[in-house]
User: Which sequence fits this backbone?
């Protein structure tokens, strides 16, 4: 991707926010112990994170990057950093502690994370750089007060045009002036958006650009474009332009796929790809590593697009009756509960318990002597028992 | 009246309330000897509104070209409708510099000079 290939690695190569950039470089150059940490505020796609990495590299700092999920609980943050890591360095290397998307801490129920973060700010012997998108968060006032604030603004359209033209030239691609200006306007000061759009437009899919870059794309429209896409880039832009939650996107795609008759082999192939995306969301939820969500649309588009190609799957809204949908999702929750209880009993991971042991437990539960023992041993409630019985019935039918 | 972002300017004596609004609310910097300065922290939309009412004349905000330092006429810019009016960018590039070959490199070199 162009945005990654042409990401500036030197602070002089970052474009826009010249005064703020200069002030930030000066801050880090002059940083002394007990100096205030810095807080970079600004909209997405203006080069905040890029600048931190570039300046750190330029000044010889090793970046220790943390995200909001790491500072969600005090224990997690302590584990990740550890007092020794914060305050002393074995080989005297210069460490910069970088907290990306720090506004994310305040959006959630933290367990001492903020207090620990403020303590860390007071006690750290290393420079701390925090980055946030929003400052209109009252809860962030404490943090703003304790830090040296650098405000980034959107990149002026003329500079955006300069960036895009430069990349096009280096890629030996062209775009006519009207399209170029349209991309620059639509990007609204966001370099990432402008470069992504230029990449798609110059590859011949320009007709969709204005629709895909429009942040007002409704979920339905976005999913329609997703299924009609002719390249994975278009599919990605369609998904990223949609404000739905990742799980809802998966659910909507699942429903659309199930709404038409597909060859069994193809169906398995598509479902496998969809499950991979589902696993990614589950893993993000489990590790609380919310920063990874920014890659979700890319993963979903890149994995699903090739398998969906050539099929006539189109967006279908609410194909399954609501009651049936609820049952599907509720059953999944119950099965998870059973697996995790089984995992504890058998000293396995939940994944292994559900893959290896659960099918046998289901079969055993069909036998009268075992059912009560399983229920009491796994401490299953009534709804879990129902699901277990239902699934056991299916498994035994499959075997027959 | 013209205000160039990043350049000092002087105003006729204004009332205390207006001065306070300009400095405290709009973030205009003031130095007794050097005059006023609009920086990246200044809410220029608010400055033009306050000064427009106080001076009873049109206040035009101009940016400086980051490369050559020339003032830029935003009114003539093809992107004037796409720029934010209240929060103006720190700098821009003028028409002449825009058409230079290797403008990206010139821009980066100019920043390198400032860092030194």
Assistant:
């Amino acid at each position: 991707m162009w945005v990654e290939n042409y990401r500036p690695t030197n602070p002089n190569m970052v474009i826009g926010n010249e005064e703020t950039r200069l002030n930030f470089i000066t801050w880090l150059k002059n940083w002394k112990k007990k100096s205030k940490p810095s807080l970079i505020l600004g909209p997405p796609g203006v080069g905040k994170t890029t600048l931190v990495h570039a300046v750190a590299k330029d000044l010889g700092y090793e970046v220790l990057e943390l995200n909001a999920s790491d500072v969600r609980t005090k224990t997690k943050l302590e584990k990740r950093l550890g007092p020794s890591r914060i305050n002393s360095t074995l080989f005297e290397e210069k460490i910069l502690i970088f907290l990306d998307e720090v506004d994310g801490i305040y959006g959630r129920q933290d367990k001492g994370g903020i207090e620990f973060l403020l303590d860390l700010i007071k006690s750290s012997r290393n420079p701390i750089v925090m980055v946030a998108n929003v400052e209109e968060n009252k809860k962030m006032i404490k943090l703003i007060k304790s830090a040296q604030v650098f405000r980034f603004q959107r990149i002026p359209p003329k500079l955006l045009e300069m960036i895009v033209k430069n990349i096009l030239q280096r890629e030996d691609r062209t775009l006519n002036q009207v399209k170029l200006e349209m991309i620059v306007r639509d990007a609204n000061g966001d370099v990432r958006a402008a470069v992504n759009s230029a990449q798609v437009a110059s590859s011949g899919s320009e007709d969709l650009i204005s629709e895909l870059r429009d942040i007002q794309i409704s979920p339905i429209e976005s999913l329609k474009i997703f299924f009609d896409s002719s390249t994975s880039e278009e599919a990605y832009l369609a998904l990223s332009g949609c404000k739905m939650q990742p799980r809802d996107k998966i659910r909507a795609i699942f429903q659309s796929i199930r709404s038409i008759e597909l060859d069994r082999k193809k169906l398995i192939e598509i479902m496998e790809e969809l499950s991979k995306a589902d696993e990614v969301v589950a893993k993000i939820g489990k590790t609380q590593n919310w920063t990874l969500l920014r890659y979700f649309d890319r993963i979903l588009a890149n994995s699903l697009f090739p398998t969906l190609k050539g099929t006539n799957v189109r967006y279908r809204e609410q194909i399954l009756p609501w009651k049936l949908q609820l049952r599907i999702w509720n059953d999944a929750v119950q099965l998870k509960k059973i697996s995790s209880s089984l995992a504890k009993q058998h000293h396995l991971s939940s994944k292994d318990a559900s893959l290896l042991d659960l099918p046998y437990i289901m079969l055993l539960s069909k036998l009268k002597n075992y059912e009560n023992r399983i229920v009491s041993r796994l401490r299953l409630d009534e709804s879990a028992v129902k699901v277990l019985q239902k699934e056991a019935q299916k498994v035994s039918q499959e075997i027959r | 009246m013209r205000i160039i972002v990043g350049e000092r300017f002087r105003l006729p004596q204004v009332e205390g309330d207006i001065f306070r609004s300009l400095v405290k609310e709009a973030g205009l910097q003031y130095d007794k000897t050097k005059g006023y300065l609009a920086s990246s922290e200044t809410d220029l939309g608010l400055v033009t509104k306050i000064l427009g009412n106080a001076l009873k004349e049109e206040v035009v905000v101009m940016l400086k070209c980051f490369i050559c330092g020339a003032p830029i006429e935003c009114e003539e810019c093809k992107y004037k409708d796409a720029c934010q009016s209240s929060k103006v960018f720190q700098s821009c590039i003028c028409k002449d510099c825009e058409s230079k070959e290797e403008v990206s490199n010139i821009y980066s070199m100019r920043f390198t000079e400032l860092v030194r």
Chain B has one domain: 2-115.
